[in-house]
C-alpha cells in the first residue's frame, strides 16, 4: 500500500526575517500564532501546519525595517 502525502498542503514561504510568525493563514486552516526562530537554522517547519519557512537574505536586504 502506498500512502501519498498531500504535498500541496506543505507550502514553502520565504521570509526576510530571522523570526517567522505563522498562524496557518487564518480561516479553516488557521492555528494559534506561533513564532519560529530562524536564528540558527536556514529553514524551519511549522509544527501546526507543516509550512516550511525559509530565510531569504535577498528579502532581508530589500526590506527597510531598521529604525533608530
Ligand atoms: Zn503554521
Keywords for this entry:
68 residues, 3-stranded mixed β-sheet, 9% helix, globular, HSP40/DNAj peptide-binding domain, single chain, mainly beta, binds zinc ion
Q: What do you see in this structure?
A:
By secondary structure, the chain is mainly beta. The protein has one domain: q5lls5 like domains (HSP40/DNAj peptide-binding domain). Helices cover 9% and strands 28% of the residues. It has 1 helix and 5 strands. The chain has one helix at residues 57-62, and strands spanning 12-15, 19-22, 34-37, 43-45, 52-55. A 3-stranded mixed beta sheet has the order 1-5-4. The protein has a two-stranded antiparallel ribbon with strand order 2-3. A hairpin with a 6-residue loop joins β4 and β5. The longest helix is centred in the last third of the chain and has 6 residues, at 57-62. The protein is globular and about 40 Å long. The relative contact order is 0.28. The mean pLDDT is 83. The protein binds zinc ion. Zinc ion (ZN) binds at residues 22, 24, 31, 46, 48-49, 51.
